[in-house]
């Protein structure tokens, strides 16, 4: 009986060990497919002279980036420690919209600067509950490392955080609203993600 349990335990350990590696490989495969799809769309936009068209860039972001973002996990990290309160007040959709508007603004600038650079996808690192896949965008001068933190949900892989050259998006957004996070007005907390432009 003991040997049977030990063999079963070893089998499960091996199985989970294999699945851990497989999860990392699957995360990388997901990012490779996502990157190739985005590169194709960017090349077409560049050839058509549409990289300066804000609406076209927003459409690219809506089609090729945002559907693969886990908005709930991302927003939890951005609005911590106020996320439960935001949800309780029925303001989750407002928070999602605010964070996505901020992401769109950032991505729009990055996509508009696309000049046919190669996007290289590196190895995936499995962290247990999630994987990190490093991509590198090569530019004429140097390049930028973009680390994508992903986890698998029921409907597939989703990105829940991004780091650009070591700057983590959720930490940056959370840090930018630290003073407002203590405010009583939850709308002010959400609005702080997209402050009005300075005049």
Automatic annotation (TrEMBL):
InterPro entries given in the database record: MlaC/ttg2D, Tgt2/MlaC_sf
Keyword Signal: yes
Superkingdom: Bacteria
Entry keywords, A to Z: Signal
Signal peptide as annotated in the record: 1-24
Pfam families noted in UniProt: MlaC (PF05494)
Spans traversing the lipid bilayer: none
Protein name: ABC transporter substrate-binding protein
